[in-house]
Every structure is written in structure tokens, then in C-alpha cells.
Amino acid sequence: MMNRILTIVLLLLSTAAYGGDAIEWPDLSGVMSVSGRAATTEDVQVGAAVFVLQAEGINIGVPIGIETPQYAIHTDVDSGQKSKVVVIQAEQASGQNLIGAKIVGTSEFLVGFVHEFKLLGREQINE
Questions:
Q1: Taking a C-beta distance cutoff of 8 angstroms, is the pair 87, 100 a contact?
Q2: What is the pTM of this model?
Q3: CB burial string 102-121: b at 16+ within 10 A, e below
Q4: Looking at the domain assignment, is residue 25 inside a domain?
Q5: Parent domain of 92
Q6: How many domains in the chain?
Q7: Measured between alpha carbons, how far is 7 from 32 in angstroms, rounded to an integer?
Q8: For residue 11, what is the DSSP state?
Q9: What residues form DSSP beta bridges with 93?
Q10: Which of 20, 34, 114, 118 is the most buried (most CB within 10 A)?
């Protein structure tokens, strides 16, 4: 069941250009996120989370110790393309650590494994 969830989740992966573009980092004070608990369907509906980890209709996600929201760079494992993101969710289930994030400068979200993200913290970044 978890493999099916991860397969569905990973289909949501999306990329946006990073590097030479002029996309500005958003102010985190206006970014909704989930912290210290597992995300709910309602969190996903309002944009505070990207995924809900469930097995047989029961939430199985457990929050991991990553501060949200925070700035990060996501690197796509297949293409190597980098995206500026804001981490809004970090959970684990069945030994898999996942991050949900908003892609900066778009209305898109992505889900990836923790090792795909370079966490940059909460301080405003000038790049």
C-alpha cells in the first residue's frame, strides 16, 4: 500500500527553472504550512499541505523535525533541474521521509524525498 501511495505522490513532482531567473523568494509570514502534526485532507484543501499519508483510510504520517515553512532548493533526481521552493510539510511513514513544498513563482506544489532538498532556513534569501 505504501508503495502505491509513494507512486501517486511522486507523480505530482513538478519542476521549475532555478538559477538565472529573477523569481523572488516570498515572505514566509503569509505561507500556510503544517508543523508538529500529520497533515489532514483539510490542510491539503486549503494549501497548507501537499499530501496525506494514509493506509486503509487511516492517517499514518508522522511529522519529522524539519521547520516549516522554510526556503529550500529542490533538485529533480532524474533531470538535475533545480527549483526554488518553500517547504510546507515534512512527514514520514513506513521508513520514507517526505517533504511537501510550493514551487516559488508558480501555483504548483511538489512532493519529494528529504534528500532531494537543500534546506535554507527561514531567513529571507537574496539570490
A1: yes
A2: 0.82
A3: bbbbeeebbbbeeebbeebe
A4: yes
A5: 2-121
A6: 1
A7: 25
A8: H
A9: 96
A10: 34
